[in-house]
Description:
The structure is a homodimer. By secondary structure, the first copy, chain A, is of the alpha/beta class. In chain A, about 45% of the residues lie in helices and about 15% in strands. The first copy, chain A, folds into 3 domains: about 1-45, 434 Repressor (Amino-terminal Domain) (Orthogonal Bundle), CATH 1.10.260; about 55-155 and about 290-320, 3-Layer(aba) Sandwich (Rossmann fold); about 155-290, Response regulator (Rossmann fold, 3-Layer(aba) Sandwich), CATH 3.40.50. Chain A contains 14 helices and 12 strands.
Amino acid sequence: MAVAKHAGVSAMTVSRVINQPGKVAEATRKKVQAAVDILGYVPNLAANTLRRERSGVIVAMVPTLENSVFSDTVQGISNASELEGCQLLLGCSSYSPEREEKLIRALLGHRPDGIILTGTLHTAETRKLLETASVPVVEMWDIAADHIDMAVGFDNHGAGYEITEHMIACGYKAFGYIATSPEHEAHENRATKRSNGIYAAIAKANITPPVRQNVRDPLDIAGSGKIAADFVTQNPDLDAIICANEIIGVGAIAELRNRGWQVPEQIAVCGIGDANIAALVTPGLTTVQFHGQEIGKRAAELLLKRLNGQPIADKKLNVGFKIVCRGSTTKAN
Amino acid sequence: MAVAKHAGVSAMTVSRVINQPGKVAEATRKKVQAAVDILGYVPNLAANTLRRERSGVIVAMVPTLENSVFSDTVQGISNASELEGCQLLLGCSSYSPEREEKLIRALLGHRPDGIILTGTLHTAETRKLLETASVPVVEMWDIAADHIDMAVGFDNHGAGYEITEHMIACGYKAFGYIATSPEHEAHENRATKRSNGIYAAIAKANITPPVRQNVRDPLDIAGSGKIAADFVTQNPDLDAIICANEIIGVGAIAELRNRGWQVPEQIAVCGIGDANIAALVTPGLTTVQFHGQEIGKRAAELLLKRLNGQPIADKKLNVGFKIVCRGSTTKAN
DNA sequence: ATGAAAGCGCTAACAG
DNA sequence: CTGTTAGCGCTTTCAT
């Protein structure tokens, strides 16, 4: 090793200067440090990982970064893990469990100390891989009866249920539901759960089940808005539409107003999810607010606690959600 | 190695089955593959990296993921690098060159095959580290005279210059400039370049230099909006404000309208940058559109080309920008 | 307080 | 087509 030679010591001493400087004589330490600085030596963590069976790397798997809730989540993970000196290896699954499996297989090769996944929908092979690797796992963005290991999220069924309850309390009775496609729901059971929550609240209230319309791309604001506006035009008896996410909700508000509809007087709109755009359209979108960055932070903290051998009081963390009432619906009385 | 034993072959044969299956007899290959599947074997890439001096990892360094231009950029990098089977190690510098240096030092330990940085402002130590590591580098989001290695971006001075030129062509003469703070500009020379472009265009037109007002947090929509609206109120002679970014611009439009101002009749607003919110406020924000995802994609492609030993026609890629005219300004004639 | 030996898992280079 | 040897850079263990 160049540094050792330069400083006239053994490789072991260099290693000590870097990892346990206290155990090295002051003079030696200085000599080695000087060599490190001059040569711009950066310890090879691949060798380290190999030897210590600890990589200092955490894997984060999200569906996409195009939706700000997930980029916020990653930011939260990044912030928290950096505090503990862990690096972040990122995977984007594009909402596909198969792609997720492929990515996890590749990422596991780097021997991450922990893995943070989005959601609870994974292939059987993914579960097997994770178990074989016996790596700590946190599932984010949903709370279910059964988790691979740990979890940080909230009740997605409840989110759909409560926003619908809120709409009903506002006095709306004739609902349209602008959903993502069944194909999307098949790959994203959080969406299914929210849908079910919506239907459940409506059933509970003994109201006519909502007329459903699917959008194509659940992240396309303009396209979803057009579909929603067409739908409203074709269903003149509705007094409110519930949108499966905030992108659709915002698109719907914008396009409806473009076409001369009054929101909420003629048609109320609510969404699920609260990217900053939801507060900025006119009128603002009534919606369910999630806490993306906090979910990420908590997930990373939970994982890091485990890695540091700290006791974990609860492996399942419910961070909740919040109904945010804005101008796109009348206030509940 | 467990797999080798299980299949009754040597470790080398297992390695060949995984990396060059063509060079192994059909029967052997099947036997080994079966053992791999049963045992859920995942090759240790740390050992691989150590031996081959190639990690299959790319580092991406962005200031933050809270701004969608950078999460889009990371998405672009992720998409492109996944095609080549490279994994993404992510760093968030929080706009601090010192933090960037610290992160790069840590990340270099993983022996990335390439590094993608945001901007051209790096500490001397960072440059030294990168040079010593002799790792390919792409700098994104700006084109300068001199780059560490490769670059994908656009002319930031030009962006400020052209949007201002556009405003002048619209007939505006009395400008306010809502800028990020000098401290921010000190850490983000792209902001400085855009500012300079704005001033240059105004000087060229022989118009009174703009009155400048700084915001505190350049990513805080509501706070920036209030500051901008107060500023407009206190400077009644202005006919237009130029905002240093689209967050400020959107906040300004929302808050000005809240306070009863007519945009653009009483005060026009333009911004720089085009997150989806810019198109969604009423009126839409006239702004300079950048191509975050494309910048990321191109940066990764450039890097991967280099890694694959392909010839690189131009190490400096200018992806340009686009003036997008919306309702917050009158149309230029 | 420091060093020497060994081995983590993998593959390049060379047998056979 | 398959196996053997050696070594990538580091740290654990044991000696000094």
